[in-house]
């Protein structure tokens, strides 16, 4: 007999939401210095052209040392607040919303000829992934801009100031620049989630239901 995968209770939903969000916040905060240095090293040629960097970095170690010496320890976490705010809901969606949304939409979308369809399940998963990605993408743009400021080029007081300046100077659309590539990249993630669900059905007989049993 197939195992019915019930809809999460509000308490379980909130617990999963918080666990996913906190896990993302801790992981991103821990890796923030490395991520910022990586961006600085990768984009140093453009920064030199713009006059925001006097001489090129000799390597990752030199980039760490110079950034710490010139801007202070806290500067290594510049843009991390926007990063955490962006990833908190995204990871919460992956942890808490996925099963909940699928339990809501599958009985409506995956019916009739589409029932049991891997492709339809893939499209549903991709839709959830795209929605989460687009909702958080402006925060990712702000995060990257803040992390790319260095030395005399620092001109954002906060993530809110950064967002305001970007919109005023470049328009709202600039917050979504590059989002198309993210949507295409989401194909792989959606495919993995769909395959995971298919394997659950084949190996364990799990199906979604709106019931509570």
UniProtKB/TrEMBL annotation:
Keyword Membrane recorded: yes
Enzymatic reactions: ADP(in) + ATP(out) = ADP(out) + ATP(in)
Location of this chain's protein in the cell: Membrane; Mitochondrion inner membrane
Superkingdom of this protein's organism: Eukaryota
Gene Ontology cellular-component terms listed: mitochondrial inner membrane
Keywords: Antiport, Membrane, Mitochondrion, Mitochondrion inner membrane, Repeat, Transmembrane, Transmembrane helix, Transport
Keyword presence, Manganese: no
Renumbered ranges of Solcar repeats: 11-104, 120-202
InterPro entries: ADT_euk_type (IPR002113), MCP (IPR002067), MCP_dom_sf (IPR023395), MCP_transmembrane (IPR018108)
GO molecular function: ATP:ADP antiporter activity
GO biological process, one term: mitochondrial ADP transmembrane transport
Membrane association type: Multi-pass membrane protein
Transmembrane spans: 118-139
Known role: Catalyzes the exchange of ADP and ATP across the membrane. ADP:ATP antiporter that mediates import of ADP into the mitochondrial matrix for ATP synthesis, and export of ATP out to fuel the cell. Cycles between the cytoplasmic-open state (c-state) and the matrix-open state (m-state): operates by the alternating access mechanism with a single substrate-binding site intermittently exposed to either the cytosolic (c-state) or matrix (m-state) side of the inner mitochondrial membrane.
Known partners and oligomeric status: Monomer.
Similarity comment: Belongs to the mitochondrial carrier (TC 2.A.29) family.
Official protein name in the record: ADP/ATP translocase
